[in-house]
Amino acid sequence: MPALVLLGAQWGDEGKGKATDLLGGSVDYVVRFQGGNNAGHTVVVGDQKYALHLLPSGILSPTCTPVIGNGVVVDPAVLLSELSGLNERGVDTSKLLLSGNAHLITPYHTEVDKVTERFLGKRKIGTTGRGIGPTYADKINRVGIRVQDLFDESILLQKVEAALDVKNQLLAKLYNRRAIKPEQVVEELLGYADRLSGYVCDTTLVLNDAIDEGRVVLFEGGQGTLLDVDHGTYPFVTSSNPTAGGACTGAGVGPTKINRVIGILKAYTTRVGAGPFPTELFDADGEALRTIGGEKGVTTGRDRRCGWFDAVIARYATRVNGLTDFFLTKLDVLTGWEQIPVCVAYEIDGRRVTELPYSQTDFHHAKPVYEYLPGWSEDITGAKTFAELPKNAQRYVKALEEMSGAPISAIGVGPGRDETIQINSFLD
Ligand code: GDP
Ligand code: IMO
Ligand code: MG
User: What is a single Pfam family found in this protein's UniProt entry (predicted)?
Assistant: First the structure.
């Protein structure tokens, strides 16, 4: 029985929510291993639409155990409000497991995230303002607060004091903000302890036992490959590792235990926030993709930047993640174009380049080299098999597959749960 990783192959708005949910019924555990409530997964179940930010998508499936792993940064207020929001809609959330080693996002992290962005001015990253970067920074600086600290009041106070020592100097002297009182933070955090204690456990033990017993475990990435702090378009990235290796460190599972890595790939490209994006469109086509695709960020409501499919990026995602499959989403959005440009290489200062340049300067100079594939006009939202797709849509999918370096095993043809063409099973 497989342990699978499911992750974004582009900049992270590819529709992971739908893919995870599709697998949810046959999966025993869905695990988040990095990121926090900067994620936005939209899952459509029947006529109900759910926007999840911190919780794993598997929470909507009654047979599945959702897990928040050690690599996630958790805003306890957000977690509790997301849980109660689902409870009000009749979703049972009692099976959730939360790692005691996960780091907590506190009010001072959110504050530092916002003032840092403001201070950067034109050079800002365009973060979601959820405190993600500062929380990971504290983790690496070894002044972070973990979930388990909620259950030892004196340790909690000592750690919060240590973390605020420097931060208050920064806030007051550099950013001209009011200092934050450690006691106030501790009081707020302790207020969450009782409500969270029932979920907390050693998630690495649970997950390794589950895999050894032959259960199906799905590791669900937030964000995407190009937002990875190591492999993405640094510094315009998030502060964690959404690539496949992140599943190992962020859940405490060895690489030998993972046998499938599925990249979610949108049939075109989108991005939220700042940073290079070679195929970005500033014309009517870009506007059409945004409108037809409903391209608004789930977390911040910002318009997504839109562009044509970029095969250089897709190939890169195959490489750094060791992808075994792709799940291609939103093919239906491309219906109606006479021809569809696909970026097959970049031109960088007069050179043709077919692999993602490692140099940031080169990537900023990259101009897309397009091939033009014939489009289709038939409505494809009802297609249930690959053969039911119009010939040119089939050709588009096959071309993307060849350029991207891994088989396309499923295709999204509409937002609904059943609007998917499954070509190969992910669970063999
Ligand atoms: P994630 O962050 O990668 O999970 O993606 P989001 O949830 O932020 O965005 C995905 C959006 O695309 C949601 O509104 C989905 O309902 C929608 N979606 C997913 N797959 C398809 C598809 O195949 N076709 C269409 N039209 N919409 C889709
Ligand atoms: P899902 O899980 C798209 C982007 C932000 C910003 C950068 C850093 O829905 O794919 P952060 O708050 O993480 O420090 O912001 O990353 N970003 C996302 N873009 N989808 C996301 O999540 C994102 N999470 C963060 O816009 O550019
Ligand atoms: Mg999203």
Answer: Adenylsucc_synt
Q: Enumerate the β-bridge partners of residue 375.
A: none
Cβ(56) – ligand 1 distance below 6 Å: no
- Taking the C-alpha atoms of 22, 25, 27 and 28 in order, what is their torsion angle to the nearest 10 degrees? 150
- Pick the ligand that lies closest to the CA of residue 329: 1
What average pLDDT does the segment 319-324 reach?
98
- Establish whether residue 222 lines the binding site of ligand 1, counting it when its CB lies within 6 angstroms of any ligand atom: no
The ligand that comes nearest to the alpha carbon of residue 266 is: 1
> What confidence tens digit (pLDDT) does each residue in 71-80 have?
999 999 999 9
Q: Is the pTM of this model over 0.70?
A: yes
CATH T-level fold of 3-91+202-422: Adenylosuccinate Synthetase; Chain A, domain 3 (3.90.170)
The answer to whether domain 3-91+202-422 and domain 103-197 are alike in fold is no
Share of the chain residues as helix, strand and coil, in percent rounded to the nearest 5? 40, 20, 40
Mutation test of ligand 1: which of 7, 42, 380, 396 has the most ligand atoms closer than 8 Å to its C-beta? 42
